[in-house]
Amino acid sequence: MLAGVLLAGLVAVAPPVYAAPGEELHALRTVTGPGGTQHTHYERTYQGLPVLGGDIITHGDKAPESRTLSTLSALSTTPRVTGPAAAAIAAKRFPYKPSGSPRLVIEALGDNDAARAPALAWDVLVTGTRTGGLPTALHVLVDAATGGVRTTYDDVQADLGHGFHSGDVPLTTTPVSSTSSTRMLADPTRGMFGTYDVDTMRYFTDPDGDWGNGGSSNAQTDGVDVQWGAATTYDFYKQTFGYTLVSNSDFSDGPSTLNAGVHEGDRLSNAYWSAQCHCMRFGDGNGVTTNPYTSLDVVAHEATHSVIARTAKLVYTGEAGALNEATADIVGNLVEFHAANPADAPDYLVGEKVFKAGPLRYMDRPSRDGVSADCWSPTVGNLDVHRSSGVGNHAFFLLANGSGPSAWGDSPTCDGAAVTGVGRDTAARLWFHALTTQWTPSTNYADARTGMLAAATELYGQCGAEYRAVQAAWSAVAVTAADQPCP
């Protein structure tokens, strides 16, 4: 079982072991491994400014490695471009409205060392609605010296899913008051997670606890799918990893942290999680080519974005964004296996009931959708994160099931070598341990491989079957590295 403990406050660390002059490290959380090693995740500030991508993780008494330690001490924190000018640049570049005041930061994000070179930047948040009705909360990082846009990432992390009715499922709800028989769709046994109707912005209530009717004519039906899906996802994380999906217990009659809204938008064909509201939202689909977006794998996928935001904080762009999406896809399928619901047989398909024509993505061979990447390449980070995620999805499938024909598909390898899987449960444990103890906001695919090998070493020993399987799975999707040699 893996347990996360939130650490509060500033940790004073003397330079130069962990921090360069002007830097401070703030402990975010500590995870204790099975052998007792403590993995502590720190956020970094420089001259009081947040360093985006400057997070480090310490592993016991070992000093962490960081790409930013040696260069920040020479960085000027005096901007040449003003905050209002940066906001104007962002508004001109993107068809959205600035929200709040620009924030001065150190930006060190990216897929490689060149992109991660720290620079003073303005973090400008612009919000609005994308084509198709999906909201956006886009962070535009404007170079404070040149005025150029360095990078962007979105707090609204969206993916398509299939809305299907989960059938007759149990729900744990709560009374509206101690004197009322009316029930509210909020679960007191799972952090008071609740589901509300976006049209009214109020939690669903019912006079007799008999929710929905299995059809779209009843507004509660989608709420049932999401509430049950969230409860199932909560149980999966708790029982598999010892991780609590929802940490809050203060839930009023309205949106709170982490919650879900259904009937989002006007026939919206999408679902998303947003860091702005700490909420999941699910559209009804258009009814012609798509159905309501409330299937179990979609709910688990969106909930996992909140987990990522509380752990590795993988930024939603480039290869880190691809890992973010892949992780959400992977958990979506793992939760299907955990639930074993006859109404939705588990598989390694992603959003298989979103489009009436078939799956959205395939994990055994991602390129089956015609656009996703099976293998890593130097340009894979330029793809949309839902397409570049294919590399991570493929690696996990191979790690769990191996290459070639299986009950779940026929998975090729990019290097032509055969891969023997270690099983779904072991693969899941390796992936989650790397996510929570090794990966940081700028982790790329090469870093993911290194982090998973470190996780394999800690959990199962170096050069064991699991370690070698991780090597083989990542090599099979063209993510290679000079690992510790094994006899």
Overview of the structural elements:
This protein is of the alpha+beta class and 487 residues long. It is 26% helix and 23% strand. The chain has helices at 83-93, 220-241, 296-310, 318-339, 385-401, 424-437, 445-460, 465-475; strands at 3-6, 10-11, 23-32, 38-46, 49-52, 56-59, 97-98, 103-107, 119-129, 135-143, 149-154, 156-159, 174-175, 183-184, 186-187, 193-197, 202-203, 205-206, 259-264, 271-274, 279-283, 349-350, 361-362, 404-406, 409-411. The strands form 5 sheets. Strands 1, 2, 3, 4, 5, 6, 7, 8, 9, 10 and 11 form an 11-stranded mixed sheet that branches. Strands 12, 15, 16, 17, 19, 20 and 21 form a 7-stranded mixed sheet that branches. Helix 4 crosses helix 5, helix 5 (385-401) crosses helix 6 and helix 7 packs antiparallel against helix 8 (465-475). The longest helix is centred in the middle third of the chain and has 22 residues, at 220-241. The chain is globular and about 65 Å long. It starts with a strand and ends in a 12-residue tail after the last helix. Mean pLDDT is 87; it is low at 1-16, 159-164 and 248-256.
Characteristics:
single chain; 487 residues; alpha+beta; seven-stranded mixed beta sheet; 8 helices; 23% strand; globular
Percent of residues in helices comes to: 25-40%
| Bulk shape | globular
Q: Rg to the nearest angstrom?
A: 22 Å
The fraction of residues assigned to DSSP E strands is 15-25%
In angstroms, what separates the terminal alpha carbons? 30 Å
> Which oligomeric form is depicted?
single chain
